[in-house]
């Protein structure tokens, strides 16, 4: 193994801390911190998926929360029918249906919307991805059977072969392992020929096109992979919270995912994880301040967001590396 | 999340370390425009704690606030935190039915006591009732049912209905349709939540064109004031009289008075409580609330005050011992406290059995706009879902 | 269908469309000339409402308050440009979206700190509180007519400013060719600040006009800003004319959708399902239109001539 870069060490340390600390808190009687970490890790997976297209592909999706929501509903709807009847074909708790359904539905949604979205560029891409997310939001709102605006409580979690999701530690273990797989997958994609073309198309699409690459197809593939990965994160989130609502796909949530990627460092392996960590911890710390400061937590949070964008280019991961990698 | 600590008042006054024996989590809305309701409830809880001296018998009480951000998902997170991190013994509060529905499992699974100080979703009075869940408010259908009776009595033959599109909005419309004998000419459910619809021009025009003899609305919090202004600007006062529940209250009236919006004077609503109810507990509550905060308390405040008093009475009855849950539940069910409603008892599904009054907006002796009771619509009313409840 | 009702709903749609235009026109100017995506533009709409509401109580007259509040909001817009926006012009749209997303949080929470959570009701003078009869059985609130009139006047003023003044000439030139304008020796920084302040005033005016109806509310800007973006994308970024037509289109679709869609849906589904899905579907409609426009005509319906 070649000598590890400074950022490699950071990656290792962050992942080890995430692997060890939350379970220790839980065993020490602080169940809440395990919950916090579970949420963090799930959002980190979503941020990692966004990083694939935003960081490496230069495709600024402002609608990624839709994939999270669709993934969660893909788990919640079969569970809802299993609990309350109707739609026998999908009424089950089996992970063999839930997970493929979440991944499949989001992949399909990514494919269909990607076909249209990827014909646009720049700010138009930002806005059209948001438009599709809003459409899904209002679609879910309009379906009375699945709770509409109120959302849906799912009392039963997905049944998987090796993990009992009703046990918080096993839930966390699954989420953390999923994060490792997601990180590995994105790294593999980025370092492959496919990833090179994707990154090349970000910097200079004309050149890649002249070289004979169909950049549209490459981007579409990346968009579908990213959407499916994010849908999987949504399936985890639905299982974790046992509550799904249209609120999960609000445009604010998409903005938060973007913030995690940028804060941590776009186009870096560990950036989205760092970003999600800082985001969740800050939100928790600021909102826990004594009254009345706690209810104004968004003020320092917003200021920080502005300052990060204005002054920390390359995100937190950028701070840890000598050279600029953006 | 967004937790706000409130010091145990007695401990602070006596200079003792703030160690509480019994902790109460209180979930309400402290951000977004709906925080106007949450702040009123928080004020009432603080006042209740002051009246109790922070003590229930020999047991110290501590209240920890949680903010639901006017959204079920955030409310559930706040509840989880109270249960898991703060390890509270009671979780009380909840303005919104959809927030309560999303949060109930977190509390009940941990075998804690859940007390609603406002929201009364039909499900939780019926099939989802639970031995650990109690209410110091009402079931959503009851107040509009009382309004339906008022409409029948007034000889109103047809009605247009408007409410926000969420759990309570649906219960409220179901409630009025349950008792109203005339024809429903039309119904609009509008977008609710942090980005709620506040311009009702399209709906009001439809209501007017429907030819209904009256309009029934349910718009709690900030939306209420906005609705009433538009209703008046549209000139519907004479052709389409307004019958509302949870819309004209101690929160919207000061704002309407500041804007000199006289149209609201004389309008009628139904409610289970009023500042003019003649009993010792209520007189003290209303007088001290006004002295401390400078406004009339709302029914949200009254119900929150009752929730804390109920908890205190039960904690006192069991001598601060939270371990024997059966004993604790029995102590709560006994409802041995002086309610600001005058009397208070629980039904089989742990919802209150109570009276409902018709209130009118009037000007008090100091010139402040408020409400007074003009009639009793229901006596000892039981909610319509009690029969569906199979208490385990 | 009842024609009176239809006329009233069209007027309602027109009113919403004109308010949308006031917000969208500033957005499209800033976007077109400065190439700056300002998510926080909706916050200026909210601040306009709050400042005007406070001033109405202080001065005792709504119309006077509007006159005083306009420059105040203009100054807030100017300061926003100076302190935050200016350093982000050279950045990509992603950075601009994120920074202005942060600005929304700052503005919203500041409003909560300053004015409290409950919002402010804005009293109108008596002569604006009544109704005007436009025909038999056709009565419209006076104030809503005033909104339509004010919206049309502002739109007319803006057209005049953009098409017949030197400033407008520079703005038009800036929208189509930035380098040329700076090559002409114009103080481009000052022009940018002015455009930003003008946009702020237009959005603020919209907020002031809606405040007597919906009250000044925290977060009121967040629901309109996304719709305003839909308007400028459909209309073509940088085009005032496009924004005007698209705003009226979106305003009418949204209002008529809310008004008549449930009757339409009631023809082929249960009335309960129709009541529930109609508002959501009419909200979806405007995004569907935007997606269609972007897919078929990415530069919008009326793009500025030279780009």
From TrEMBL, chain A:
UniProt keywords, alphabetically: Cell membrane, Membrane, Transmembrane, Transmembrane helix
Keyword Transmembrane helix: yes
Transmembrane intervals: 37-59, 66-84, 96-116, 123-140, 169-190, 257-282, 294-320
GO cellular component term, pick one: plasma membrane
InterPro entries membership: ABC_transp_permease, LivM-like
Record has Cell membrane as a keyword: yes
Molecular function via GO: branched-chain amino acid transmembrane transporter activity
Annotated CDD domains: TM_PBP1_LivM_like
Record membrane topology: Multi-pass membrane protein
Subcellular location: Cell membrane
Name listed for the protein in its UniProt record: Branched-chain amino acid ABC transporter permease
UniProtKB/TrEMBL annotation, chain B:
Domain called Leucine-binding protein: residue spans: 22-364
InterPro entries, A to Z: BCAA_transport, Leu-bd, Peripla_BP_I
Identification of the protein by name: ABC transporter substrate-binding protein
Naturally occurring in which organism (per UniProt): Seohaeicola zhoushanensis
Assigned protein family: Belongs to the leucine-binding protein family.
A GO biological-process term: amino acid transport
Pfam entry (one): Peripla_BP_6
Tagged with keyword Signal: yes
CDD domains: PBP1_Nba-like (cd06359)
Transmembrane segments: none
Record-linked PANTHER family: LEUCINE-SPECIFIC-BINDING PROTEIN (PTHR30483), PERIPLASMIC BINDING PROTEIN OF ABC TRANSPORTER FOR NATURAL AMINO ACIDS (PTHR30483:SF6)
Signal peptide: 1-20
Keywords, comma-separated and alphabetical: Amino-acid transport, Signal, Transport
TrEMBL record, chain C:
Membrane topology field: Multi-pass membrane protein
Keyword Glycosyltransferase: no
Family stated for the protein in its record: Belongs to the binding-protein-dependent transport system permease family. LivHM subfamily.
GO CC annotations on file: plasma membrane
Gene Ontology terms describing biological process: amino acid transport
Transmembrane segments: 12-34, 46-76, 97-115, 143-162, 183-210, 216-235, 242-260, 280-297
Entry keyword set: Amino-acid transport, Cell membrane, Membrane, Transmembrane, Transmembrane helix, Transport
InterPro entries, per the entry: ABC_transp_permease (IPR001851), BCAA_transport_permease (IPR052157)
MF annotations from Gene Ontology: transmembrane transporter activity
Protein name: Branched-chain amino acid ABC transporter permease
Top-rank taxon, per record: Bacteria
Subcellular location: Cell membrane
Organism: Seohaeicola zhoushanensis
